[in-house]
Amino acid sequence: MNFDLNENQLMIQQMVRDFAAREIKPNLLQWDEEEHFPVDVMKKMGELGLLGIYIPEEYGGSGFTYDEYVTALIELGKVCGGIGLSVAAHNSLCTGHIYYHGTEAQKKKYLPKLASGEWIGAWGLTEPNTGSDAMRMKTTAVKDGDEWVINGAKNWITHGLSGDVAVVLVRTGELLDSKGITAFIVEKGTPGFSAVKIKDKLGVRASETAELIFEDVRIPEENVIGEVGEGFMQAMQILDGGRISIAALSCGIARGAYEASVQYAKEREQFGKPIGSFQGISFKLADMATNVKAAELLTFNAAALKNNGDRMTKEGAYAKYFASEVSVKCGNEAVQIMGGYGYTKEYPAEKFLRDAKLMTIGEGTSEIQKVVISREILK
């Protein structure tokens, strides 16, 4: 299988690289320090087609594939994991859920706004009391005439505050019933729907995170995605694709840490020679390079299966698990290679390490990826 970048990927790569150098890199330290989510930058990326990369042109998207999507996220991750995470969550979760499981009317209503960046999307599965154990969710929706009434809360939601629309998974049946969960589209401004920003995160601080609160939120029947009770199945399918996006972002963070380390190892001198000439450093770089390349190959392999419409639960978990752990390793090694400088914000290593850690947690922890992989191989 050939994973050389095609013409479209090379175009996307250069476009994102130029955009990141111009719009993101000069501001990323300030955004990180202030935990500022730059909505204006997100909208500019929408204008470039980056917020609907694999959405067909008939719905306002760019009409590309997961290959171009992975390429874009790698480039963003090399510069800022927070901005990359926001692009990933918008594309894979909210927009992707409506595209893959929504009605034709829902697609025509929401996808053009999401793909263009006019609207920012959020997606809510996790709750304050449930992370990996999603079937114990307490947020409920009860039918009342032609409407559903939602009560409860969702936690750790990307764009929960700034998002214009959210896809949320809530319980419509019995506790622990996989067919008792339903997906709803909830628009910002709906009475009873509010959000509270989560502050003081370790990393990805330029990506907004919030708690969603539902107090007798009335949702029309037309905002149910698919059939009542299909939500859990839909969410698992969305997470399969979403794991590719986190793997791609992890590859970007890892590659950014690796490239910064190579540059530093060439320039920094000790004992009269560049530190890269010492095996203690050069072997670290060799390990980083090998791991990054392996992570990218796993990620593009999962993307190829996704493009073909093949089942890729195991392959997506492979990529997400390995790439996320590699991103942490590379961030840690970058700090070690840069020594005292790597421990300061004057150099990029510490931010790569902080951003990388979330990759092993979001959209299924590394431990959950092992559960998925082991379950698949023992069938």
Q: In summary, what is this structure?
A:
This protein is an alpha+beta fold. It has 3 domains: 7-120, Orthogonal Bundle (Butyryl-Coa Dehydrogenase, subunit A, domain 1); 122-230, Butyryl-CoA Dehydrogenase, subunit A, domain 2 (Beta Barrel); 232-377, Butyryl-CoA Dehydrogenase, subunit A, domain 3 (Up-down Bundle).
Overview of this protein structure:
It is a single chain. The chain is an alpha+beta fold. Helices cover 53% and strands 15% of the residues. The radius of gyration is 21 Å and the shape is globular.
Ordered list of secondary-structure elements with their pairings:
Elements (H helix, E strand, L loop, with lengths): L6 H18 L3 H7 L4 H9 L18 H14 L1 H21 L2 H13 L4 E4 L15 E5 L2 E12 L6 E7 L9 E7 L5 E5 L11 E12 L3 E2 L5 H37 L1 E2 L2 E2 L4 H30 L4 H30 L6 H11 L6 H12 L2
Parallel strand pairs: 1-4
Antiparallel strand pairs: 2-3, 3-7, 4-5, 5-8, 6-7, 9-10
Helix pairs in contact: 1-4, 4-5, 4-7, 5-6, 5-7, 7-8, 7-9, 7-10, 8-9, 9-10, 9-11
